[in-house]
Amino acid sequence: MDSSGQFVVSLDFELHWGRFEKVAGRRADQYYRNTLENIPHILGLFERYGIRATWATVGMLMAENVKEWRTYMPDELPLYTKSKYSAYAWFLSHDFPKEFLFAPQMVEQIIAVPGQELGSHTFSHYYGCEPGQTAQQFRADLQAAKRIAMDKFGLDLTSLVFPRNQLNEFYLPVCAEEGFTCVRSNPKDWFWQDTYRETWAKKAFRTADTLFPIGGRNSYVPDFCPSHPALPLQLPASRFFRPHHPGRGILNHWRLSRIILEMTRAARFGETYHLWWHPHNFGHHPQQNLRDLEAILQHFQFLHESFAMQSRNMRDFVAEAQLEPQRTPRSETSFVISPSPEQPRKLSRANREPTGGSACPPWRGEI
Ligand SMILES: [Zn+2]
Q1: What is the rounded CA–CA span in Å between residue 277 and residue 17?
Q2: Is residue 354 part of a domain?
Q3: Residue range of the domain that includes 24
């Protein structure tokens, strides 16, 4: 890979499958209608500005209807200690509008646009760090996700985003065995660690960090040497693209400015900047959110012309990593984190900082 900066975009496409345990059966018809209407506009912007993106999609969403949903259900379902986390239990006890759960036609539209990768957000919006579920149940879920994507779209899913960013490091070998070569990991800041155990402080700091430089530097230089064949590449997220809210006044501008500045720094120093969000985040105030997205993409275009910054989806990284001539074991190094542009620092086993995910998840499953 050359020394140009990289702009990575990943979206968690889930509709209500990603919110069922938070808002249960509460209707939000216009919100989801807007979400579905917005996606072609997002795709249009991506095409106009040459953006390659990974759409980490819930497998259940790829089903046409309930009958097909049942067809692809895995034999082993996740047996969470708290059943509220089970998409199956929720679905069977709620009569939710099906058009906000199943959207294979939207997946067709996404994959028809050049540079768009269909990734996985598991089959059932699976919570990998919640107690009760096992590695075997996780594996069955991944297999179901891969099966429906292959049967319906002829695509092999290789990039994975863990729902609720619950990256369970004990499950990474399972991911690799099921053919996943890249996963999104979390920023290294403390308020992005152990996302299975949310606290008021973490949420507050995460929100504040979208406005002010509270966390550490979130762009990085991926070191592709450590492509250990037994584990997927972990590609850290840099920033969640928080949606516009009319009641927040100047804070909307600060939020956007922070992203612009971070992108600029990444482009200038040849680093990677990974922006992510959910399509449904544009469900409220869609016009303003699309305008904000276009402002970001226009800035990318400027950075592309000025610093040769490149757009990449998650799969692109793996493809380019495979072209790297030299490799060392992943356990030795993971990413080069630069505390200052002048002094790049390579992490070693001795001084390694978390690259995101759960260094010590509460639930290892039965591996
Ligand atoms: Zn999700």
Answers
A1: 15
A2: no
A3: 6-346
Average pLDDT taken over every residue of the chain: 84
Cα R_g (the chain), whole angstroms: 19
> How far is the centre of ligand 1, averaged over its atoms, from the C-alpha of 162 (Å)?
7
Residues shown for the chain = 367
pLDDT in tens, 105-139: 999 999 999 999 999 999 999 999 999 999 999 99
Any domain includes 358 = no
d(CA 154, CA 132): 33
pLDDT at 319: 87
For residue 81, being part of any structural domain is answered with yes
Q: Residue 48: which residues within 8 A CB-CB, separation 6 or more?
A: 297
Give 270's DSSP letter: T
The domain total for the chain is: 1
Token pair listed for 9: 């975009």
Give the CATH number of the domain where residue 260 resides: 3.20.20.370
Secondary structure (3-state) at 329: coil
CA of 302 to the centre of ligand 1 (A): 31
Identify whether 278 is part of a domain.
yes
Helices (H) and strands (E) in the chain, counts: 11, 12
Residue 11 Cα to ligand 1 middle (Å): 9
Q: If you search the block for the tokens 């070998």, which residue do you land on?
A: 173
Q: From the CA of 275, how far away is ligand 1's center (Å)?
A: 15
Dihedral over alpha carbons 148, 149, 155, 158 (to 10 degrees): -110
pLDDT at 247: 75
Q: Which residues of 20-34 are buried (b: 16+ CB within 10 A; e: fewer)?
A: bbeeeeeebeebbeb
**190 pLDDT higher than 70:** no
Stated pTM of the model: 0.85
What are φ and ψ of residue 285, in 5° steps?
Answer: 55, 55
Instruction: Compute the distance from residue 185 Cα to the ligand 1 centre, in Å.
Output: 13
Q: What is the pLDDT of residues 234-287, one digit of tens each?
A: 999 999 999 988 877 778 888 899 999 999 999 999 999 999 999 999 999 999
Question: In the chain, what percentage of residues exceed pLDDT 90?
Answer: 67
